Amino acid sequence: MGLTGADAPAGSGSGSPGGYAGTVAAPVPAHRDQWEQRVLADPQLLGDIAFAIGGPFHLMYPARVVDNIRGFQQVFTESGITGVVYYGKKANKAACVARACATAGAGIDVSSTGELTAALGQGIRGADLLVTGPEKSDDLHWLAARHDCLIAVDSIGELKRLAALDIPVRVLLRALPAASASRFGMSAEELDHAVSETADYPSISLQGFSFHLSGYDPVPRAEMAGQLLDRCRAARTSGHPATTVSIGGGFGVDYVPAADWAAFREQATRRWFHSGKAFESYYPYSFPEPGPAMLAAILRREDLAGRLRRTETTLAVEPGRALLDRAGSTVFRVQGGKTRHEHGQPYRILTVDGTSLSLSEQWFDSEYLPDPVLWPDAPGTPTATVVGAATCLESDMLSWRRIPLPRAAEAGDLLVYPNTAGYQMDSNESPFHELPLPPKVVLSEAPGGRYRWALDQSRH
């Protein structure tokens, strides 16, 4: 969505008796799980971790990942169909997430030898791995075939390279949706050719078809799945197993309450942003049918669930962000701040001990909007605040928006960005300025109703 003009009034923000007129942005508060509430209420835990780490860090709560997986699995059960969940590993590389997938009986979608070996190392069996990506390397093909992984084939050339390995391999053929400009997948004619080709390769077992769609509309996903069900039926008549259709990922996440998101969209103005910054679009931070609910909506369309049952076809999904919903937060320490005035109104510019590379919406020239929480909680005067990084780049801002923090932040305080586990944590982190990458800290239940923490086992 676009912003209104620089001089447009902001109106009153949701939940604010006095409104958020002028240069102070309306709040965009995130939904919080019980584990997050307990962490924020603990008078020592965050401070102790920050002291031990000595820099920014990511909090992970893998028990929530298990719950999210089971939510998708419950939809399969209630719909009476056979389904499988593959976690899109690119969304977060933490070892604890892969271990949570193994615990919950989910597979993992990988696209490199590094992701494949990391998944194996956390207990995911090769048969539970789906290998995706365009024109995969020969090394990845060989390793995937050796471990009996399911491989999504992106082109006829890739299919021929797999056949040349002369190792038994299970494949899905990735379809290019009609009218799509994507560089991934095969056209209808190419799919027909690929199905015919597999008959000439005794080492290739055609298990079915896959696709990916952008956006979050259930209807085109159900329609495309129906088309690939027809292809599975046709392939079976030619002797292929063809028992699986994968509809990919893109399951929405509900970050903030609908009323607060609507207030932001309706009232946002350039005056809410440092230097009048504007963004063309944002992730839809309020989502009416997130994750499993979106899967249920897809299955209701086109009698998709009924068709899957009647044809005894397995439905595969590849969620990334949706399996990480409310499973992690990112914590920065305030290093200092200064006051600036714009349009006659003061606001604070904070500098924290990390960079915007840890809030990856900046990768898409956008802003991560859920409000950070200032810790510790203490009385004070509400203060409009933007957040900058500890680098020499003018554009390196974690939050351009003038967030209404409950008090003026001071050096040593912590800013906790909520729900960052899905893509935000490490999609494009790098040791810029030779700053170390923020480590991932894994929380688990301990006796006495408290949390204990340990560093994640990831190699990164």
UniProtKB/TrEMBL annotation:
<dbReference type="Pfam" id="PF02784">
    <property type="entry name" value="Orn_Arg_deC_N"/>
</dbReference>
<feature type="region of interest" description="Disordered">
    <location>
        <begin position="1"/>
        <end position="25"/>
    </location>
</feature>
<keyword id="KW-0663">Pyridoxal phosphate</keyword>
<dbReference type="InterPro" id="IPR009006">
    <property type="entry name" value="Ala_racemase/Decarboxylase_C"/>
</dbReference>
<protein>
    <submittedName>
        <fullName>Alanine racemase</fullName>
        <ecNumber>5.1.1.1</ecNumber>
    </submittedName>
</protein>
<feature type="domain" description="Orn/DAP/Arg decarboxylase 2 N-terminal">
    <location>
        <begin position="68"/>
        <end position="269"/>
    </location>
</feature>
<keyword id="KW-0413">Isomerase</keyword>
<dbReference type="GO" id="GO:0008784">
    <property type="term" value="F:alanine racemase activity"/>
</dbReference>
<dbReference type="InterPro" id="IPR000183">
    <property type="entry name" value="Orn/DAP/Arg_de-COase"/>
</dbReference>
<feature type="compositionally biased region" description="Gly residues">
    <location>
        <begin position="12"/>
        <end position="21"/>
    </location>
</feature>
<dbReference type="InterPro" id="IPR029066">
    <property type="entry name" value="PLP-binding_barrel"/>
</dbReference>
<dbReference type="InterPro" id="IPR022644">
    <property type="entry name" value="De-COase2_N"/>
</dbReference>
<feature type="compositionally biased region" description="Low complexity">
    <location>
        <begin position="1"/>
        <end position="11"/>
    </location>
</feature>
